[in-house]
């Protein structure tokens, strides 16, 4: 009896071993090179054990194979991934052969997570196309120009807040991400719903907490493919309630506002869209509109704090223009634009689509590399080595909104304060092992001094 059990167990064990071996042969039988995977972690043992961020595991593989092949194959546990190490191949995948590669690798259960499940990021095939086309019209120049006053109000509150905190003209140290998130949380809430989130007033801002709830829900769904519900009920009902209340309030009081919600309301009057569809769109804009841009702002300030000449050059450009920066002017300022692009190159908030080194002094912050005499970013974009917003038909659709939200904040801070990096900030911060976005393991602490 015992022997039968023994043989049965051994047989099962051997079958499992064969299956795993077969999975791990996926690339070798296709003659694609790559690091040798080891059960159970595949090639990402360090990140699986929390020793470093997944991006560094991938970067190690990239460095090992970039000279040897245009693509290489690796495994995260038992899941195979193809890593494109060549910019021509990247362009082929995300632009030219888009039709073959059009879906992202995110699983979410639309029935369990109706709100984050409706984001174009996750949707596939025709539903992706439809949902994307519904938000695209919110991002026209005319719409963004009418939202611009809300952004300006946000920068004013930002500057007022820093001024309030600086006592007796002393230098004051701030957690850069905390300050920039308060700002983006306010501006995105006001641009979508026309509501004042009061992130600079409250010590524990409520909208921010709900925003973090969204981010955590989404990050959990990216990190694991198990079909659990990801968004907590209180976060879900919070966004459902504020959206519905705002719609009802506007309809009852016949209020016409220029913001994202007004577009969605008029869209609903034209096509068949459910309430959940509208809330889903609002959640997409909220989620994508506050975390990414906050990271860019805080990294830009950090780099400007480290590079006094660049900060001074930017300040002079801003001083040479009207104090009331118009929408057009904000987008035109060339050095501000270069600082913005250089920050995105060095610190893409979404590190996964972009990890390409083809630059001279690639690790240094040099906005001058994008001088217009040298053709700006055009050459780099054509070669597909600068894609912080992705590229092709699936490119980030909030890019233009991100421009004004980020640039307006940097301009007003540099106009009003001298920024330096506090000595408590380590010289080369790394991405924390558990982070999904490029969030450093140490806080970036900056000193602000009134000018
Ligand atoms: C500097 C800030 C931002 C960066 C660096 C960024 C970057 C990205 C990237 C890399 C993608 C994926 C593109 C691809 O798959 O090729 C993406 C997609 C997307 N972004 Fe952004 N983003 C930013 C801000 C925003 C903002 C402010 C919004 C909206 C308010 C937004 C909305 C979206 C949406 C909806 C998608 C999904 C598009 C699709 O799959 O069709 N993003 N973004
Ligand atoms: C998307 O389309 C592809 C090919 O047309 C199909 O194989 C796949 O099952 C579709 N995915 C979903 C989620 O509909
Ligand atoms: C501007 O910000 C202040 C302070 O948060 C707020 O009370 C006011 O309603 C905002 N104005 C607009 C037009 O949003
Ligand atoms: C900023 O820091 C305060 C105090 O530590 C905290 O209560 C608040 O939630 C933080 N806000 C953001 C947006 O990080
Ligand atoms: C609107 O869509 C819902 C489901 O999404 C469907 O049940 C309903 O029949 C549609 N109505 C019209 C007029 O198309
Ligand atoms: C993330 O940010 C750090 C410092 O803030 C930077 O040095 C690093 O290059 C960035 N990494 C990626 C993959 O974006
Ligand atoms: C910065 O990037 C944007 C988008 O890629 C581009 O339109 C702009 O011209 C760039 N700026 C410079 C100075 O090249």
A few lines on this structure:
The protein is mostly helical. The protein is built from 16 helices and 5 strands.
Summarize the structure in words.
The protein is mainly α. It has two domains: 2-85, no CATH class; 116-450, Cytochrome p450 (Orthogonal Bundle), CATH 1.10.630.10. The protein is 53% helix and 6% strand. The chain is built from 16 helices and five strands. A three-stranded antiparallel β-sheet has the order 3-5-4. Helix 6 (141-165) crosses helix 7 (176-193), helix 6 (141-165) packs parallel to helix 16 (399-416) and helix 11 runs parallel beside helix 16 (399-416). The longest helix is centred in the middle third of the chain and has 32 residues, at 275-306. The protein starts with a helix and ends with a strand. The model has no long low-confidence stretch (mean pLDDT 87). Residues 94, 120-121, 132, 284-285, 288-289, 292-293, 296, 344, 349-350, 353, 388-391, 394-398, 401-402 line the site of protoporphyrin IX containing FE. GO terms for molecular function: heme binding; iron ion binding; monooxygenase activity; oxidoreductase activity, acting on paired donors, with incorporation or reduction of molecular oxygen. Its cofactor is heme. It is found in: Endoplasmic reticulum membrane; Microsome membrane.
């Amino acid at each position: 009896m015992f022997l039968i059990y023994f043989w049965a167990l051994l047989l099962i064990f051997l079958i499992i071993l064969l299956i795993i071996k077969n999975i791990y042969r996926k690339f070798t039988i296709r003659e694609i090179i790559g690091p040798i995977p080891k059960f159970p972690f595949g090639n990402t043992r360090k990140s699986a054990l929390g020793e470093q961020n997944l991006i560094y595991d991938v970067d190690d593989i990239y460095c090992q194979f970039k000279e040897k092949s245009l693509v290489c194959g690796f495994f995260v546990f038992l899941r195979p991934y193809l890593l494109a190490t060549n910019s021509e191949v990247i362009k082929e995948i995300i632009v030219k052969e888009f039709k073959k590669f059009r879906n992202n690798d995110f699983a979410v259960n639309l029935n369990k997570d109706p709100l984050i499940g409706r984001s174009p990021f996750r949707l596939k095939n025709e539903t992706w196309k439809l949902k994307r086309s519904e938000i695209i019209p919110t991002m026209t120049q005319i719409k963004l120009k009418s939202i611009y006053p809300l952004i300006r109000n946000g920068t004013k509150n930002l500057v007022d807040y820093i001024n309030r905190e600086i006592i007796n003209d002393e230098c004051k140290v701030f957690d850069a991400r905390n300050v920039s998130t308060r700002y983006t949380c306010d501006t995105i809430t006001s641009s979508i719903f026309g509501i004042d989130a009061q992130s600079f007033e409250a010590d524990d801002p409520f909208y921010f907490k709900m925003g973090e709830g969204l981010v955590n829900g989404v990050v959990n769904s990216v990190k694991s493919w198990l079909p659990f519900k990801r968004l907590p009920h209180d976060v879900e009902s919070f966004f459902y309630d504020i959206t519905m209340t705002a719609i009802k309030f506007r309809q009852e009081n016949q209020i016409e506002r220029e913001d994202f919600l007004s577009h969605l309301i008029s869209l609903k009057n034209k096509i068949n869209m459910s309430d959940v569809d509208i809330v889903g769109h609002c959640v997409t804009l909220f989620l994508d509109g506050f975390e990414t841009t906050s990271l860019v702002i805080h990294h830009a300030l950090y780099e400007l704090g480290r590079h006094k000449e660049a900060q001074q050059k930017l300040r002079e450009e801003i001083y040479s223009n009207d104090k009331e920066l118009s929408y057009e002017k904000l987008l035109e300022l060339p050095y501000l634009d270069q600082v913005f692009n250089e920050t995105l190159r060095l610190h893409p908030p979404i590190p996964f689509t972009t990890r390409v080194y083809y630059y001279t002094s690639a690790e240094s912050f040099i906005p001058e590399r994008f001088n217009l005499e040298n053709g700006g970013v055009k050459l780099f974009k054509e070669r597909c080595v600068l894609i912080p917003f992705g590229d092709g038909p699936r490119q980030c659709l909030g890019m233009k909104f991100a421009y004004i939200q980020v640039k307006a904040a940097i301009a007003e801070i540099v106009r009003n304060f001298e920024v330096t990096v506090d000595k408590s900030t380590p010289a080369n911060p790394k991405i924390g092992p558990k982070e999904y976005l490029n969030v450093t393991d140490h806080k970036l602490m900056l000193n602000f001094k009134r000018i």
